[in-house]
Each structure stands twice: as C-alpha cells, then as structure tokens.
User: Fold this.
Amino acid sequence: MVVTHGSLPPSGSRCALTIGNFDGVHRGHRALIDRVTAKADELRLTSSVLTFEPHPREFFSGAAAPARLTRLRDKLELLAQAGVKRVHVARFDARMAALPAARFVEEVLKIGLGVRWLLVGRDFRFGAKRAGDFSSLQNKGFDLEAFADVQFDGKRVSSSAVRAALAKGDLRAAEGLLGHPYVISGRVAHGAKLGRGLGYPTANILLRRVSPLAGIYVVDVEGFGHGVASVGRRPTVNPVAIPLLEVHLFDCDRDLYGEHLKVRFLEKLRDEEKYDGLEALRQAIAGDVQRAREYFKRHG
Assistant:
C-alpha cells in the first residue's frame, strides 16, 4: 500500500475513493472499503482512502475530542490488510478547515487524487463550516455512490459505539463491532521500574492521548505471549497526567526497551484503584496475575 502525506500535486492516476477518519477500522469501515476495492477492480482504478491527521474533531475540540481508538500507524496497517492500494493522509489544520467545499472537490478530489468514483455516506459533510454535503458531490465529473450504515447484532456500527463499549469494559461487544480484538500498540519506554521492585516487571508504553478504556485487563502481546496490563494514571505511586499502558508478561525475560508491542485486550478484571501503600498494591497485582492465568487456563 502506498501512503502519501501533505500537499497533492496534480494526480497522474485515477482512483476509486472513500473519505473518513476510519478510527478503529471497524466492520462498517471494512464494508465500505470492500465496496471501494471491488469497484476499483471492476473499473481498473486504484482503490484509495483519504483520511486526516489530526482528526477534525481533535482540531476543533482539542482535549474535549473523543479518545482515539487507533494510532495512525495501526490504522494504516488495518487499511492495508483490508486491501486498500493507496492512502493519502491530509493534514487537518486551519487551512484545511477553511477550504470551501467547492475547492475541496476541485483541488483535492479531482486534481490532487484523480477521483473517478467516490463512495460516501448520505450524511457526509465536508468543507468550511461543513457546508458541503452529498448533493454537493453530484455531477462533478466522477461517479458517486451512497453507502448505507452497517448493522451488527441489531446495532449501528460506529466508532462512537466502539468507544462506548470499551468505556464500559465490554470487550466482547467492542470486538463484535470492530470485527477484530481491540489492540493498543506502542514502543516500550523506560519507566520508574516500580513494577520490578514489586516483583512484577512491566513494559511501559506512553499513550500520548487519552485512552478509550481504563483499568486492569487480561492481555496477549503479539510475539511475546500472555500477560496482564494496566491502563491508567497510577494513583498509588508516581501518578501521571496522561494514562500509561503497563504490561506484565508472564513468560518473557527479554529486555523490551525500544520494542514495538501490539497488546490485545481480552477481558477486563477490574477498575484502577488507589491503594494504601506498596504492599497493598503488590497484593492487588498478585491477584490480577492469578486471575489472568486462570483466564488462559479456561481458554486454552
């Protein structure tokens, strides 16, 4: 998959395109992409996605924006797995926010990306002050198709619904909506080594943004095995402003500093708590580890 960023010179290719944030790349996104890739094959076009960094809601709302489900790196990996041939990551800044809908169509879609076929939802809005809508895209020199909402277990699939499930600790519901287990990935950083002192060394991943979930979880780390993880602010010792992902792996003696881990969340054990001292914290971690090991015994 080809990934491009920044400004768009006049395109020398032609594409079948869809547009969106694709946060989580859930079942609805996958259905959208499946339609784009099928149509691209039929019309001999390049299957393409236009997405934005940061998310528009992050630009407008700052810290009040919804928590991200996936980092850009993970999103691009999921889009590649879905069969997309090209992704353009447009920087959403003041200039993009002020771009009139008509210029967005002409400069970005037609000239920059070479759109010949476009798929969006009926409620798609774009351009300055969200003035552009589905009707604004009709009769613009490319074929246009509307895509209906996707349902799963009788519910509309959306990034908001996934966030709501994760916030409640309902990983099964979140996985159903996503079509894949929920994963957080990141590079292991040096920490205070508190876990090692308690007998439970952890690999620490700085999240940089607020996470859609919090608490203590049973996890599996791709290539490294089973474990238990905490997503939170460490209220007992050395509190942090931005939530931290701390993973204790059961059968790994390797030095993980600098490694990029993919942490798959399987079951929530409990909420994060503040304990009265390190011994109480150590006992709580021991209980979490025992329950996580029992989980893997039950599930093979």
About this structure: DSSP finds nine helices and 14 strands in the chain. The domain at 182-298 is CATH 2.40.30.30 (Elongation Factor Tu (Ef-tu); domain 3). The chain has a mean pLDDT of 92. Residues 8 and 294 are 53 Å apart (CA to CA).
